[in-house]
Amino acid sequence: MNGKAQPSIASPARSDPPIVIEGLCNSFGGNVIHDNLSLTVDRGEILGVVGGSGTGKSVLMRSIIGLQIPDEGSIEVLGRSITDAEEDEDIDIRSRWGVLFQGGALFSTLTVAENVEVPLLEFYPEIASELRHEIARFKVMLSGLPEDASSKFPAELSGGMRKRAGLARALALDPELLFLDEPTAGLDPIGAAAFDRLIKELQDTLGLTVFLITHDLDTLYEICDRVAVLAEKRVIAVGTIPELLALDHPWIQEYFNGPRGRAARSAQAGASQKRTGKMDNPAGRGA
Ligand SMILES: Nc1ncnc2c1ncn2[C@@H]1O[C@H](COP(=O)(O)OP(=O)(O)OP(=O)(O)O)[C@@H](O)[C@H]1O
Ligand SMILES: [Mg+2]
User: Fold this and answer.
1) Which of 3, 75, 191, 213 has the fewest CB atoms found within 10 Å of its own CB?
2) Residue 16 Cα, ligand 1 centroid: separation in angstroms?
3) pTM of the model
4) Cα 187 to the chain's mean position, in Å?
5) Do 149 and 165 meet the contact criterion of CB atoms below 8 Å apart?
6) Per-residue pLDDT tens over the stretch 131-149
7) Considering only CA atoms, which of 52, 60, 235, 208 is closest in space to residue 142?
8) What is the residue range of 120's domain?
9) Nearest atom of ligand 1 to the alpha carbon of 59
10) Ligand 1, residues 59, 182, 251: which to mutate, most atoms within 8 A of Cβ?
């Protein structure tokens, strides 16, 4: 037209935030958990979600994936309303995310590979069993488990391996969105650091958007692009850790500037120095 190169225009659907929550209210009986909570998750980011125990992080995640019907408010995921979803839309949207629940939630009577095959069978029953087995094997390896883990039952795995098996199942359908509820809880510091690196690699290579609930300060420092703070029944702040540190809120200050927060910060500063120097030391983790 005017001879100038046209700017590349991303389709609106690709650049829109994948999760938009507005005015969310949840309660159980008279117990109000969320009151007018709003949050937007940007495409391609790892958003850490923090808050005291019982502040409603898991309930928030369950609301986003449609397992908890809110009292009020709207939730849009990948451009679809979760709060007003029709049955068939619901099926379609659920195939575009993967979830690692807080307790792992693997089926104990199924092997690791069979667990990974569950969503494949549910959403793509037409896939031939050989191909389904092959996809499951690939996801198990992608999650950093040895190949022989595929035929094991959850009870035969260590806690860290169970987390990876849960991750393999969450990745079964090549999701655009990954929900992780306390993925490193209970892992030793080296195992937790390795899990963090795996999540970061998946974000980089698969372009995933990750909603990551955690109490793990090292995880927040190492891999989260932004952090959302849940307190007072809503998201009181969202930003990078330096942005949050600049806020004068007692819970945020205590969390990030308390002894554990300071230890995580200096561990990360030390690891960055080593990376630019000689080597990374995941054992530096653990406040
Ligand atoms: N199905 C339910 N019925 C009744 N109350 C519930 C239900 N699920 C959650 N709650 C309550 O909602 C509140 C928030 O729970 P939630 O599991 O979201 O906390 P959390 O922030 O994830 O905590 P943690 O860090 O310990 O995992 C808690 O008081 C919990 O008892
Ligand atoms: Mg929880």
Assistant:
1) 3
2) 30
3) 0.87
4) 16
5) yes
6) 999 999 999 998 889 989 9
7) 208
8) 108-174
9) 18
10) 59
